[in-house]
Fold ABC-type cobalt transport system, permease.
Amino acid sequence: MSLLRRCHQTQVALQFVELNTPVSIIALETGLSVPMLRRMYIEHTGQRPPRGVLPFSADWFLQWRPNIHASLFANLYVDLMRTKLTAPERLTAAYRHYLSELACFDDSETLLSMARAWTLLRFCRSQILQLTPCHRCQACYISAAYQPSNNFTCGICHTPSHAGYRHRSKQLHT
Ligand SMILES: [Zn+2]
């Protein structure tokens, strides 16, 4: 790796560190070594990096609340495809947008960690998941791959009866 490229990749790695990304993902995205990234993490944050990536199931992204978060992130990522950002830069930029969008809502729990966002993109690239337009509202949501859009209804247009339960019960106890 040339010195200039190494400098650039170090800047990209810092973006990932600031978003609490597991070192194994940063290494894959930047080509920098795991020991160097561990040192960078500790120097930059004063803390140990989060543990590696657990094997997430694609089904997690299809559950009602996670699906809203995953779809928000995926749409933000797709919007950035038009820019000249590299794929790792696009990932950190989309994730920052996701966090800032969440900050606008009351129930702003960050369901999608950076590790999950990264895994989501891998599932989409492997054609396990995809963005599908809802036939009612036309907005795009994460669905199983090869989902025909003419009969796909998103979680907002078709809210399951239990969807608001968790939020309501939280309010009752505060
Ligand atoms: Zn819809």
User: Anything to note?
Assistant: The chain has seven helices and two strands.
